[in-house]
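pinned: reference chain
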Amino acid sequence: MAPARMGSCVFIWPCAFALIGAVGCGGGSSDATGPTPLPTPLETATPMRTASPVAAWAAGGSVARSLDGGMTWDVVFEHEGLEATEFADASTGWAVGSSASPVVFRSEDGGSTWADQSADLDSVQLLNEIVVLSDRRALLFGSFNAPGGFGLGPSLVLGTTNGGATWEASRVTDGQSNFDFAAMPLQSACTTDGVLVLACGIGSFDVGPSCALSADAGGRWMGLSRGVAARHAGCTGVATLWGFTFRTLRRSRDRGETWAEIDALPAGFQGRVRSMAFADESHGWLVGDENGRPLILHTSDGGDSWHRQTLPDDVTGELLDVVFANSEVGLAVGGTNLNSAPGPLGFATRDGGNQWVRASFPQGLSRLTDAAIAPLP
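pinned: its C-alpha cells
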C-alpha cells in the first residue's frame, strides 16, 4: 500500500512502543504490522438541506460548541493553549494544544466535560494537530523538546489505541544517517480512510515545508520532505492526497506514490489557502484569506478547478479551518482583524456553500484555529 521509496527521509516507529514519559527511539522494524483499518465516521453522514442535526466544535484557547451546524455557539471548555479539536462522533473527541506545556483533553459527552490526559508529556515541546481514527484511536502531531532545550525540536507523532489512557511516540529521522530532523514540528494532518495518513509542517530555514506519509494508521512513516514541500495536508476518498502552501497545490491520486503540482486556483489569485475539506471525491473547499478578507474556494471536479464562493462584503479577517459533515452541511472558522486581539470568525452552510451565513459567537472568545463536525444521533 505504501510506496517503497519516497525521498531519502523516513519516519521510524520504534519496534517496542515506549510510553511518552520514557520515549525510546531505536531502529524501526521493517515488517511491523500496523493497526487494523477503521472507517472514518463522518463519511456516513446523510445529506441535509433544510434541517441541520449536526454538532460542531471549534478551538482557539477555548472549545466552543454548536448544536445547529455552526450557526450559533457557546463556550463549553476553557484552557490556555488549546489549538485543535477533533471528534470521532457526536460524543467522543479530544482537544489538544500547547502553551506553557502541552495539553490533551478527552470528552465522552459531546464536549460538556473534559478529562485531562496531559500526564507523561515531559518529552513533548508542541502539540499542534490531532487526527481521530475511532473513539479509541487517535494520532497527535507536533514536536519533541529540542536537544539542549533551545529552538524547535524534532517531529513527533503520538498514537493511542486505548482512548488516550496511554500515548506511544515516534520521531522523524533521516533513513541514511539516522539523524533526527531538527526544527520540524508537524502542524497539519488528515486521513483518507482511517489508514492512510498525511502530515505536514512548516519546517526550518534549512529543511523548509515538508510532509510525511503513513499507510498503516500511523504505525510507520515515510518522509516526503524532498518531494512534497507543503505546510498543510488535505485528504479525500481512499487514494487522493493534497499538500499545499498558500498558493501552491500538489496532489497525489495514487496514495502518495506520485505527486503533481496543480495550477487550478482562480486567475490572478493573490491570497493564502490554509485548510481543505472534501465531502466526496468531487466536491471540496479551500479556505484562507485574500486582500484582508476571508476566502472560501469550491471545486466540483475533484480539484481540477477552484472558484470563489460568496461571503458578506463587510467582513475582514481570515479563515483557518474548514470541515464538512456531508456535501451540504459545513463550516469554516478563523479570526477577525482586530489588531492585537482578534475575535472569532465563522460561517456555516446548509446547501454546499451556495450560501454561507455568518456565525454568532459569545463575547470574549478569541480567534478559532480548528474545527470539527459530526452528525447528532
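why pinned: The first strand starts at residue 9 and ends at 12. The two ends are 34 Å apart (CA to CA).
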